Amino acid sequence: MSSNRRxxxxxxxxxxxxxxxxxxxxxxxxRKLTDSPQRVAxxxxxxxxxxxxxxxxxxxxxxxxxxxxxxxxxVTVFLARSASEAAAQGATRTITGAIVTQKGASGFRFLVEDxxxxxxxxxxxxxxxxxxxxxxxxxxxxxxxxxxxxxxPAAPSQLHNDQAARLLSEALSASDPAVVPAKLEQATSAxxxxxxxxxxxxxxxxxxxxxxxxxxxxxxxRTHSKQIDLLSRARLDLLESNLTGDLPARRSALERLTRALxxxxxxxxxxxxxxxxxxxxxxxxxxLRLAVAAESGRPELWNSFGYALSYLRRxxxxxxxxxxxxxxxxxxxxxxxxxxxxxxxxGRFRDAAKSFExxxxxxxxxxxxIALEKAALALWLNGEKKEAGQYLDRYLAARAQAxxxxxxxxxxxxxxxxxxxxxxxxxxxRVATRTDHPMACVASAMLALRYLAAGDEPxxxxxxxxxxxxxxxxxxxxxxxxxVDAINGAGGAEKQALGLSLRGDWKSAAEVxxxxxxxxxxxxxxxxxxxLALSLALSGRANExxxxxxxxxxxxxxxxxxxxxxxxxxxxxxxxxxxxxADKKPADAxxxxxxxxxxxxxRPDRFGQLARARAAARL
Length: 619
Hints:
30 helices, alpha/beta, 67% helix
């Protein structure tokens, strides 16, 4: 082969390889633009035309851009007053612009930048001799979109004429807040199909006039519902559901909103919370997965996502989510506290105690230091009675030093947990008889529950009535009233089920606990599950309790501790022992019976549980 032909071939190969290299580079670049989450900051537009009559498009164009870009996948849009503010909020793209006039045409000059790489991505001028500004804003949104999400359309503009857009601009830039409602009302009259106008008017009415003003605007908007875009209608319906407390309407509005705005993490978080409360944990997890994908740098989303996974008993994934939470917020005591709760729920008690202690070490005042008490409970659940007591002593010493009036109630709680029920009852009696004690009402109500559980109905009734007279706040009154209703079998399913359990009517209690569990918020159903399982086990139906407690342990809220603690613990060991017997796992059953006996202490054996556990120990 001649040298000329060889050189030509080499040159051709070089061109081809360079072309392939460009193709793959460009493909990767487009894929990155398409896939990477973006935080887009829209900075103020200046009127550089020299014509003060063109101040108004500068005021409204940012709203128009934000509303049109917010529908883009994995894009979060926000308004920033300056480049430094945009950087502080983690902007990955910035949009700057101005109103300009040149060569007889007026319009927008714009620039889309990557502030972190200090690279201009797109820019130019969109202008016409006799501009219709609403059309120019729509064209501007399309040009900006192509630089942020190629081949994905922006949302249609909801500004359909310049008259309404100008009125909206005047409302947004008004120095006198009193003129804003009138300007917004005029904008909706000029363009009844302007969903943005209706929404801003409704939000302003809610801020200024409260419920009556908001109701009036929402009623007016409904006369034009067929003209208003679906996204604005969903937002208006969400405002209305917040006003009325209509949960189905709220869910419908949030579902429509998040379908239209898959990157709206605020709406996704609200929807996930609603799903969780309605016990639709799979939907909550899927919704939070979208939120994390949209804004992986927001720590609180990882926290919520981890809990959602734990409700589905996907504990390894939940643990990974909590580790991401801690990476996103390394200085906070909450990530190790949340991780400890998930570890404890999944039965990894030693690891849970370590995580709780790590939370306490980061901030000893966080949640009044309760992480130490949770560490004690984790070790208690693991059968490490001595070690649990050591953590508890540290916690109680800190509460006493802080002058916590509830410290005596905490001591009584743990005396019950360690099997010293007579001692705990005596402590509660001392607090309840001190009418000057700030926690006398609560101690009295707790005593009433324990009297009924011990079979002393007259004492329970008397103490429950007395607790009402000792209440010092609406919260204490509500707590005492809950106890009175439960003892009397009044009120909803939860109160009725509690009363039946305290009396030992386990068969009836099981049926009512099923209803109470279905009504309980999904994130706080621990005692409902445990007491339904106990009711089933004590009425000879342990097999039915398997899914309620398998591979999970309860987390009780602070108020639930006061009501349910002595019923849940140590009975949860007894339930698990009965399940192990049903599953023909004698070694597991023996360990659970042993834990039950270790902590039962001087409790009366009203239902033969202690006798059954001791008989099992002799086998």
